Amino acid sequence: MQLKVIVKWLALVGAAIVMVSSVLIIFLPDTTAVNSTQSVASVAQMGLGSKLPVRLIIPAIKVDADIESLGLAPDGSMAVPKGPDDVAWFNQGPRPGENGTSVIAGHEGWKDNIPAVFDDLYKLKKGDTISVEDETGTTTVFVVRESQTFSENENAASVFSSSDGRAHLNLITCEGTWDEVSQSYSNRLVVFTDKVE
Predict the structure, then answer these.
(1) Cα–Cα dist 107/84, whole Å
(2) What is the pTM of this model?
(3) What is the mean pLDDT of the chain?
């Protein structure tokens, strides 16, 4: 699989997770891994009916955004929000509120200085709350545990997995210096949150 610019960031079940042009991309090296991941997600969805996440609310930084439910693009990359205002939930993993780690990505530093949904993500601090509303109107609340910055080559396995049997939601965006050559930011900001029981 060839992409013009690929910044390797994380190995996850045979996948490499990268950031390109301020968007999160997940690409898988073979169709076996893709089909396996999709099968797991399909089983989870059958058991939960249609309770898809539709809105992300973060009062501390005035975020009230629609959640796009996106999976893998035909080239194996993670589909990303079309514009600067929405966020993307990776629907091949747990839904927000399910045991395990859910991931939502959003843009920061949109072109032409247009405001983007996660421009102020770095301002979140321990104890701030994040709410995810599903399409039935049920709200699940998470509390910020910590924020961490990862360089593009740093192992960040903790961002996409957990083994404590609890529900987590991690928010990801780019930060740092924009590199015109690689068309990527130098770092990734991750906000780790835990479901309020």
Answers:
(1) 6
(2) 0.75
(3) 76
